[in-house]
Amino acid sequence: MNNGGATREDVGEEWGFAYDWVHTASIENFIERITALRKGEQPRTSTSERPQPAAAIRALHVFGRKRPVAELIESAQLFESRDAVNVLATAALCRNVKEAAQLAIGQWQAECATRAEGTPLTDGVIHDVACQRPALDVAVFVRECRRADKGNLAEQTLRIFAGTRSGRTNIDKALLYIALRDEDCAEDAGNLLKHSLEAIDENSLLPDETDPVELHDLVGALRQLSPTERILEDWIDKELKSHDRFSITVRRVSRLIIRSPADPLVEYAGLHWGQHELVELCEQLSEHEEKCARLRNHLASRTDPKELAEIIKTWQQSATLGRTLADLLIDIVAMGAARKNGPRPLRELDELDGWLRSLRADPSCNRQLRFAAAVHVEGRSGTELVTLLRKVEHGRDRPRVEHLVGERLAARVLNFPATRAHFVECLQRLREAGHAEATYVARRELADPSGTGPAPGELAELIADIAADHFGKAHGDKGTDLWKDAWDLLERCLENEERVRPKDVVAVVRRLVDGTMDEEDRHLLLRATVGRWSDVARREQAVRELEKADLTADAAAVIRSLL
After folding, report:
1. DSSP letters along 472-505, please?
2. Contact 34, 80 (CB under 8 A)
């Protein structure tokens, strides 16, 4: 009887049929022949031959692959310990996975029956299966252990598979999770996620920088294999409902986020977690500012004012996060990750302000919310800015708010000249409402930017365009604040001889000629600004540029300022 028959294909072509004896020899005879091969002796004789340790290894390999499982378990008690490990490892990795499960179960029962301490050979089989067999095989192995009512072996397999020393990537873990569910082992699939998070938590301080970062992205791997499900997120939500696992689950999620290159879990937590979970998670991420900012950005896109008020209140009370409350409120006002939809509507801001009072949040939350809302100029009409400025009640905040509004309006039009109409409209409404400080700062910052902005020539043309718009809205009435603001803006621009080039003067004058500023006022402006440049050469160059552009009357106005 061949016991499965060793062929060239299944034991290696170079081995031939020299190992047929392995299939039929008794265990005692097999052990004797293995010893003889290693020593270079003929069995039962003293005849010496060349030692053949490799032949002994091959014989053990064939034994592990071809002998019945029951005999493997029996032989494990008779072999030298290293030979027993070798044979069982071969069987665990090379045989049908159901036979590997039978081997683990039988070996565990045999070792338990001896009442020895531990089950080292069984542990070796499980380790080999968990670390080296494909994920689909491991799922079947776990299923067979469960069917045999050996949950301890199934649990051990999962723990080793998910461990940091198994060599398994998160892609492997995601594959096993999907496979376990398909084998009707849903509880084991959940345990796999638990062990995977534990492993990430334990190894968080020792990341393996030699591995591609995507291999550590458990969320991404699960999303790829099952795009329509939120597998890990839903499992985490269940864990968070248990008071005794709440804090440890949040900590493990933070470790997972830190190691993940993408942020689907960050987005999920930001949009769906309650205030206590969110604040504790942000506390865990406080040293990882980029990750914390992403989470804050997602939670700030929520639209339920009560939820946001609860988060703000809890955030402010946190000893770790309280100092970043202003950042949170800025994100909330801007709508966070949904900022492309524009700033948060005034109605929602009013409701949020009301909920903060109803929840008895610290009054500083309301004050800082109104401050953040008032200084957010992007996407706000001039009327909305005025409304928000009026809500700033704290005496010390008002001057700061007006100053910031002016700076930000100027910065926006400098970086995006297409928003010129918005800039003019906002300054008009602010002026009408009596917010002179905001308009003053906006004009000053526009004429002499403190940050980056357009090139000098583009800046001069932009200022001339804005001034012309002001003159148009004033309808020639020199007594209006709009007309005075336009004059002030042009004066600030043209008297800055270090920033304005002679040819820029030409661009400004041409725009004013085409606009609504009459010639007398234009010449007066030139005499008061360009005509008083201290750099004589630059002033004379400006005159020549005006003359070349057929603006001789304007050139003469500059010259007359010297007489």
Report:
1. HHHTT-TTSHHHHHHHHHHHHHHT-TTTS-HHHH
2. no
Closest listed residue to residue 343, CA positions, set 352, 334, 353, 330 = 334
Judge contact between 317 and 280, C-beta under 8 A: no
Return per-residue pLDDT of the chain as tens, 563 residues: 334 443 434 544 444 446 788 888 899 999 988 888 888 876 665 555 788 888 899 999 999 999 999 999 999 989 999 999 999 999 999 999 999 999 999 999 999 988 677 899 999 999 999 999 999 999 999 999 999 999 999 999 999 999 988 889 889 999 999 999 999 999 999 999 999 888 876 665 554 444 545 445 788 888 889 998 889 888 889 889 888 888 888 988 888 888 777 678 899 999 999 999 999 999 999 999 999 999 999 999 999 999 999 999 999 999 999 999 999 999 999 999 999 988 999 999 999 999 999 999 999 999 999 999 999 999 999 999 999 999 998 778 899 999 999 999 999 999 998 899 999 999 999 999 999 999 999 999 998 888 766 776 788 899 999 998 888 888 778 888 889 999 999 999 999 888 889 999 999 999 888 777 888 999 999 999 999 999 999 999 999 999 999 999 999 998 887 65
> CA 46 → CA 25, 32, 38, 49, 468, distances in Å?
21, 13, 14, 9, 115
**Nearest alpha-carbon partner for 272 in 225, 311, 327:** 311
Residue length, the chain? 563
* Structure token pair of residue 140: 């079947």
Measured CA to CA, the distance from residue 327 to residue 331 in angstroms comes to 6
* pTM for this entry: 0.78
CA distance 317 to 362: 8
Give every CB contact of residue 555 below 8 A, 6+ residues apart in sequence. 543, 544, 546, 547
> What is the 3-class SS of 218-236, one letter each residue?
HHHHHHHHCCCCCHHHHHH
